[in-house]
Amino acid sequence: MKKRNYFCLWSGGHDSGLTLYHALKKTDVLCLITAMQDYSNQLKPNFFSPAVLRAQSDQLNIPLLIYNSDTENYTESFAKTLSNIKKHDLIGGFFPLINQPDQKNILTEICQLEKMEAHFPLENKEKEALLSEFIELGFKAKIIAVNERFLTRDLLNRDLDKETLSEIRSRKVDLFGENSEFQTILYEAPYFKQPLQIKEGDINLKNGYWVVDVSIATKLETTQK
What φ, ψ does residue 113 adopt, rounded to 5°? Predict the structure, then answer.
C-alpha cells in the first residue's frame, strides 16, 4: 500500500490501538475519528470523556476528530463526517473489526458512497493470536467497563494481560470484547510518546454496564505518587 492519507476509527481501547499499529506499518494516518454517541435511550453509554481521547491523540501526535451521533442516525452522521474530511485529501480509513460482517458491510458501503477506501487489518484473524501480539508488542490497556450480562465488576481496573484474559476465557465470552462484553482504555503503546497516567474514579452502573470514571492525572498528581 502506498503512503497516502487515511484515517483510523478510534475507540480509545485495545481494538483500535492494534488496528492503528497495523495501519501505520502500511501507510500514513492523518487523523483519528471518534463518535460521541447519544445513548440516552439505548444500552451503551460513552465510556470516557473527550479529554481522555484527546490525551491519547496528543501522545500519538495525530489529530482527533470527534463528531456527534446516535444509534438511529449513525450512518448519516458518519457519511456526513467523511464528506467533510475529504477536503483534507483523505482517501480512506482503517476500522477495528474482526468478525462483524454486518458492521463491515455498513462501513464499506458508506465509504464507497463517499468514494473512499475501507480497510480492516484485523479481519478474520484469530483473536488469541491478536491479543498475544498486543501484549508482546508492549501495548497496555485497562478494563474500564464491563457488561453485567457477561462479566462482573471485579474485572474493572485490571490490565488486559495474560492472567485477565485467562479469566475472561473461563467465563466463555468473546476474548476481544467484540460484542460489547467489555471496554478498555489504552494507556501505553509502542507509538505513544510516553505512557498515560490514568486516574481511576467512582464505579457506577450505567445502562447495564459497570463503568469506572477515568481521567488523566495532572502532572502534579503524577509527581505526588
Answer: -60, -30
* pLDDT of the residue at 149: 93
Q: pLDDT-derived band of residue 44, with 50, 70 and 90 as boundaries?
A: very low
* Ramachandran angles phi, psi of 132, nearest 5°: -65, -45
Phi-psi region of 157 (alpha: psi -120 to 50; beta: other; left: phi over 0): left
Query: What are the Cα distances from residue 217, in Å, to 169, 179, 195?
Result: 32, 30, 11
Nearest to 23 by CA among 96, 104, 105: 96
pLDDT(19) > 80: yes
Identity at 79, one-letter amino acid code? A
Indicate left, alpha or beta for 18 from its phi (over 0: left) and psi (-120 to 50: alpha): alpha
Among candidates 105, 127, 100, which has minimal Cα distance to 118?
105
